[in-house]
Amino acid sequence: MSTTTETKSSTGTKASGGIRELGKMFGGGQSSGRQVGILGALVVIIVIFQIATGGLTLDPTNLINLVNQNAYVLILAIGMVMVIIAGHIDLSVGSVAAFTGIIVATSMEEWKLPWPLAILLGLVIGALIGMWHGWWVAYIGVPAFIVTLAGMLIFRGGNQLIGSSATVPVPEAFTIIGGGFLPDFGPDIGYSNPTLLLGLVVAVVVVIQEIRLRRTQTRMGSEKAPLWVSVVKVIILLAIVVYATLLFAGGRIGTSFPVSGIILGLLVLAYSFMTRNTTLGRHIYAVGGNWHAAELSGVKIKRVNFFVMMNMSILASLAGMIAVARSVASGPGDGVGWELDAIAAVFIGGAAVSGGIGTIVGSIVGGLVIAVLNNGLQLLGVGVDRVQIIKGLVLLLAVGIDVYSKRTDRPTFRGLMRRNRRDAGPGDQNATPIERPSVAPSTSAEATSRPQSTSPN
């Protein structure tokens, strides 16, 4: 019997474990199969537009503009995916971004507030707005859809009221967070030296991180992925880092990697760590997956809901300030439709409509799909009307495939391969299938609504 177990462990388990580990590069265990597919779709889209535009898509200048133009949407997607994982939605992010932007611009233009203090003021405003939304959602029990719909109207009107529907310029020093670049230094070698240095740092971190991961797994006695998996992961990631570094470093003189891209990268690292490696992150997934079970397990549901709503508004305020800095002014048209782009990025990136599933990395990939579509179609001269139609079809297709596969219980190709290996593996003939409890659907509002004040949580 021990021989059979060892054979199974040395064949099926390790093989499937290797594939799982490769999949974790693209978003962890949550819906990683779909996220790998979305990443593949992104690569295909880039290749198609690169050919169709005669090489303009991967032109360094175009890539730098792509990051600057879409950093705010990707920042919104970071917060939105956490809201959706928890089972909510936020329709107010565009209006909150515009409201914060006009206050920050006014504080620098009329109140003569220094730009660092103006940024701090914007973040405080975002936190207060988020606390307002979180209080209604978590402690009063009003659905987030209604709360944020009201917020969308309130703060859109607030933007127009404070700014008198006019444009308010911002000082040049403030624009660095939205349109600035890493400062250049060193000899002229034909590439941006700070961008090359940044790429070198990222490459070293990739290698060190993989080595530390394997050492930690060895020290704790946990199962490690095969060595070839680690080698393949590092090679793929290093190839991506080197190629991207050379592209961004090869832009026109005076440009390098955008400051907004640095901010975005730091946020992705911080929130990816938080959602995957902290108690709060696990609680967010638990609330979205099954709030009743999470409550019975001791999860403070109200605190989790309060946090995700407050965090979303803080990130919306940051996104608004970055957009204002890039456009050098705040105006009444800021933030229009931003919430739709953020929500689309999250769902295209693999999040589930019902909550409980999604990742930061997956949402960034989904946002890049939208960004590359917008950019590529514009380079081809496609009209705005047709661009909107194409984006809508992409979103509908991505979510439709997810919903259809769940309703019909049809596995993905990756899941089918796993099932075949498990069924064909030795010792599986006598395996007992897992019995899942059947829960009859309820039509009562009390049974389907989220908890309001059922516990001190």
Describe what this molecule looks like in 3D:
The protein has a two-stranded antiparallel ribbon with strand order 1-2. Helix content is 70%, strand content 1%. 38% of the residues are buried. It contains 18 helices and two strands. It is mainly alpha-helical and 457 residues long. The model is unreliable at 1-16, 26-31 and 411-456 (pLDDT under 50). It has helices at 2-24, 32-52, 60-85, 93-109, 115-140, 144-163, 176-179, 193-220, 227-249, 259-277, 279-289, 291-296, 301-327, 338-348, 360-379, 384-407, 413-424, 445-448; strands at residues 168-169, 329-330. The longest helix is centred in the middle third of the chain and has 28 residues, at 193-220. The chain starts with a helix and ends in a 9-residue tail after the last helix.
Short description:
This protein is an all-alpha fold and about 450 residues long. Helices cover about 70% and strands about 0% of the residues.
